[in-house]
Amino acid sequence: MVDTRTQPSLLYMVKQVELVVRSHLDELVRPAGITALQYTALTVLERHDGLSAAQLARDSFVTAQSMADLVRSLEARGLVRRERNPRNRRELLILLTDTGRELLDRFAAPVRDLEERMIHDLTPHQADQFRQALSKAWHALS
Q1: 39-75 in b/e burial notation, b at 16+ Cβ within 10 A?
Q2: What CA–CA distance (Å, rounded) separates 19 from 59?
Q3: How far is CA 140 from the centre of its chain?
Q4: 26 has pLDDT over 80
Q5: Can you give the pLDDT at residue 32?
Q6: Using CA atoms, how far apart are residues 38 and 79, in angstroms rounded to an integer?
Q7: Is the model's pLDDT at 12 over the cut of 80?
């Protein structure tokens, strides 16, 4: 039996991975003039275009206030646009522009390479189990 008191907690290890991934991702997308958080928001819109700011904030793991600033910055760069929700005229939806899609396309391979570096020492089966375990952990806390 392993003495868990001598090992870092899983929460600590998850945070370490998050911080190193974010650092590498920031470095990777910096030449495009965006941050890892902005890149994450763009990838969320790539999967689910036309979200409200509140939905985008939740799915991008930032506060609503941070998302408001982030969206203004992305909109100023022409990477996203806002338009009224036809079903709820008081709500603005955030949509990815063609320029935003081009940026994501440009970084798809380098980001995939970063992910491959992260799981390099895992077998394909272990990588799949890792993905499933992370998904289950996220759902358990959501």
Answers
A1: bbbbbbbeeeeebbbebbbbbbebeeeebeebbebbe
A2: 18
A3: 19
A4: yes
A5: 95
A6: 10
A7: yes
